[in-house]
Amino acid sequence: MLQIYNTLTKRKSIFKPMTPNKINMYVCGMTVYDYCHIGHARTYVSFDMIRRYLKYLGYKVNYVRNITDIDDKIIRRAKENNEDYQALTSRFITAIDEDEKALNILPPDSAPKATEYIDQMIDVIKKLIDKKLAYIASNGDVYYAVHQFPDYGKLAHQDVGKLRAGARVSIVEAKTDPLDFALWKLAKPDEPSWDSPWGKGRPGWHIECSTMALDCLGEHFDIHGGGFDLIFPHHQNEIAQSEGLTGKTFVNTWMHTGFVTVNKEKMSKSLHNFFTVREVLKNYAPEVVRYFLLTSHYRSQLNYSEELLDQSKTALERLYLTLRDTPVETQYFASQTQTQYFASLRFHEAMQDDFNTPVALSVLFDLSREINKTKDPKLAGTLKYLCNLLGILEQDPEIFLKQHIVDMALSESEINHFIQQRDQARKEKKWVLADKIRDELLQKNIIIEDNAQKTRWRRLTV
Is the dihedral of CA 261, 265, 268, 273 positive or negative? Predict the structure, then answer.
């Protein structure tokens, strides 16, 4: 049975959707003021993998991923560029869509934009004020009153007193509590703004996601996800807003992806140590990048390096070579062999253990080695099917290898041709020539195995 780690409970448990065979899932999307970097891609590839596997299990998944298209960073970047903020966000939304398509990330079922929900946000803020969960500060901004929500800090497992003691408050802020956060910000000169009961202004970041999630998925839904850095304060603030408003549990299962690091530091734009997807795709095929992002468990840290990308490139090449050299049986489910059954069983055991892709990939390589030995079309069909569940190995092997592998490995027909030449040399007792052909094949990662009946060969796989 599927088990998922829940950030809220800090443990894995058997996943049970609220409605049989249906899952509502919300994932925080990007703030669109710059290109998507590998850290973002790690989150979106991970949840794409999760969504694909949930659908394989038979669930109808309603996947919502928002777009933050109004925010301090957006306004600041638009001013720096002397560009209209809408032109800026439109340009980066297009770029992000292109990057995700390249990485074989399926589009969400809904992609609501914050600016499309201003009226609903104002309505939510009004209700929070009426419930004494929010207040109008002396500077005209509207803040959420954290002390009015007793469970504040439960997602991050933080003590509110310690959080309050460590909070920093600017002297220009009019909060009554250091932990209070803005729901509505009065507009400054030359900033985008909307009319509200509290004057022209714009929403705070946290209220955007609560409002869009409530509208798209309802007051209580199955899964909410995002990067590890969103646990506090963003997702904690979403809980405070939503549960304070409705009195209901907001989300059953909270899922968070680990950081991508560079030299053991978190990859982020603020640290200027990030690599955009576009930069990386100049040197690596998109499928190589997707594979790399799946090599580490989604909750663990993933260190970015060209060495690891090169290893992913080699690994993906091996899988494609296996499919190129063995015919793929599409009706492989009929009368499964024992090898097929146990390979599939091990793969699904890994995936149902909180989507453990590193173990699942190791199963695929065990299967690949067996295929290279047996040339079994049913096993090849199983390999392709299981890889497709992860969003990899969907291309024609010959096309992928020719487009992306510079040092093209020998095809099966070429290998057989060399073996025929070697067999002839051995028949004529030209041992030096026979050894030379064997050594040349070994340099191409082809291992020759001689026996009394015929010469067999196999690829040396990772």
Answer: negative
Answer for the pair 142, 182: CB distance below 8 angstroms, yes or no.
yes
| Burial grade of 312 (CB within 10 A; 0-12, 13-18, 19 or more) | buried
Q: What Rg do the C-alpha atoms of the chain give, in angstroms?
A: 27
Alpha-carbon distance 342 to 328, whole Å?
A: 19
CB 251 within 8 A of CB 222: yes
Phi then psi for residue 361, to 5 deg, are: -65, -35
Contacts of 170 (CB under 8 A, 6+ apart): none
Q: Name the burial class of residue 173, with classes exposed (0-12), middle (13-18) and buried (19+) by CB atoms within 10 angstroms of its CB.
A: middle
Kindly give the interhelix angle for 377-389 and 357-374, rounded to the nearest 10 degrees.
160
Rounded Cα distance, 391 and 226, in Å = 20
- At residue 442, the pLDDT reads 81
In the chain, list all ranges with CATH 1.20.120.640.
306-404
Q: Give the list of residues 6+ apart from residue 299 with CB closer than 8 angstroms, or none.
A: 5, 228, 256, 257, 258, 354
Average pLDDT over residues 265-279: 79
Q: 406 pLDDT band (50/70/90 cuts)?
A: very low
Query: Strand order in 181-186's β-sheet?
Result: 134-136, 142-144, 181-186, 201-203
In contact, 321 and 312? CB cutoff 8 Å: no
**Token match 């004057």: residue?**
199
Could you tell me where in the chain the CATH 3.40.50.620 domains are found? Answer: 24-266
Strand-pairing partners, residue 205, are none
Tell me how crowded residue 95 is: count the other CB atoms within 10 A of its CB: 17
For the chain, what percent of residues have pLDDT higher than 90? 74
Nearest residue to 41 (alpha-carbon basis) of 325, 305, 276: 276
Structure tokens at 161: 């007193």
For residue 422, what are its two tokens? Answer: 């070697």
Instruction: Determine if residue 263 is left, alpha or beta; phi over 0 gives left, psi from -120 to 50 gives alpha, anything else beta.
Output: left
- Count CB-CB contacts under 10 A for residue 232: 15
Residue 265 CB-half CA count within 13 A: 9
User: pLDDT (tens digit, 9 = 90+) per residue, 152-177?
Assistant: 999 999 888 887 776 665 545 688 89
Tell me the pTM: 0.87
Please give the torsion angle defined by the CA atoms of residues 185, 187, 191 and 197, in that order, rounded to the nearest 10 degrees: 90
Helix or strand holding residue 167 (H, E): none
**3.40.50.620, 3.40.50.1820, 3.40.190.10, 3.40.50.970: CATH of 24-266:** 3.40.50.620
The Cα 335–Cα 18 span in angstroms is: 35
